[in-house]
Amino acid sequence: MKKKQSKKKTQNKKKKNYSETTAFANLEKTSIPVTKPKRSSSGIPKYVADRMARRIFFTAGIPTILGMSVFVVSYIIVTRNIAEIPPSSTIAISALFFLLGLAGLSFGILSASWDKEPGSFFGIENIPMNIQRAKAAFKPATQNFEEKS
Question: How confident is the model over 75-90, as a mean pLDDT?
Fold first, then answer.
């Protein structure tokens, strides 16, 4: 079956032919100038984010990889009859490494220095200052929420 096609009323409309110069001239007249918004300084600077990523890789990545490798090592030890390892101890050791990785994630974020220079190796002196920054970042959001309710 054929589909019915709607009739277009193109008989009454005439096509206007514009030259390229007039078409682009009209385009330039009607275009609205685009202004880029200013970047706000409320984000984390790139050098700080890179420093945090490096710290997170070492303090969270390594324990997480060790937590996963506990299962593989335990499997190899049990299947080759080297030793009898109860499954509960495998899970407990793996959970310990995963918790260590979770603590390392928090430590990697909170110990990063916000100065241009890297700071100390462990960065323990930066933790109280970064906790205050985190609290200050969430403070306006909670104040707005409390005012509305």
Answer: 94
- pTM, two decimals, is 0.58
Q: Describe the crossing of helices 87-110 and 46-56 by its angle, rounded to 10 degrees.
A: 160
CA 15 to chain CA centroid, nearest Å: 52
Measured CA to CA, the distance from residue 146 to residue 140 in angstroms comes to: 10
Domain positions in the chain are: 46-144
Can you tell me the distance from the alpha carbon of 126 to that of 117, in angstroms, rounded to the nearest whole number?
Answer: 13
DSSP string, 13-49: --PPP--HHHHHHHHHHHPPPP-PPPPPS-S--HHHH
Token pair belonging to 123: 């960065």
Sign of CA dihedral 26, 29, 31, 34: positive
pLDDT (tens digit per residue) in 97-138: 999 999 999 999 899 888 888 778 888 898 899 888 888 877
Q: Is 112 exposed, middle or buried (0-12, 13-18, 19+ CB in 10 A)?
A: buried
Both tokens assigned to 35 = 């202004």
